[in-house]
Amino acid sequence: MRIGYIKYFAFLVVLIAACSCNRNSSKTKESTVYKGLYSFGPEIKSFKDCDSGREFWVADSSAQLELQYSQLNFEKPYEPVYVEVEGIKSKSGKEGMGSEYDSTLVVKKVIKITKEIPQDICN
After folding, report:
1. Per residue in 54-108, pLDDT tens?
2. Half-sphere exposure of 59 (CA within 13 A, CB side)
3. 55-60 and 103-114 beta bridge pairing
4. What span, in angstroms and rounded, lies between the C-alpha atoms of 47 and 54?
5. If both were cysteines, with which of 37, 89, 93, 113 could 48 make a disulfide (CB 3.0 to 4.6 Å apart)?
6. How far apart are CA 52 and CA 34, in angstroms?
7. pLDDT at 7 > cutoff 70
8. Which one, of 92, 82, 103, lies nearest residue 34 by Cα?
């Protein structure tokens, strides 16, 4: 009977330790809404933030931004559109197509996409 309690206690200690480690190591960033200009083409996936004027490489984890952009039926690539997206900014990698940008905007959700660029929000 005593061995059963020891095993149960050991199991609880391991479980608590595992949960504590997981909680401390998973510092997840919260998504933020970004408003700006998005351009897409064979070699460019960029976002220019209307508030700061900074440009970011775009990683579309939503799988909706590129799709909705292509559905706007532009004759030429790289035409900017106004977007409002929910996402997370992260440091860009040192290699790959986005390496020339300091940061990458990882898009989680598309809120709005339009060809009409509002002058009062994004000059």
Report:
1. 999 999 999 999 999 999 999 898 999 999 999 999 998 888 888 889 899 999 9
2. 17
3. parallel
4. 8
5. 37
6. 11
7. no
8. 82
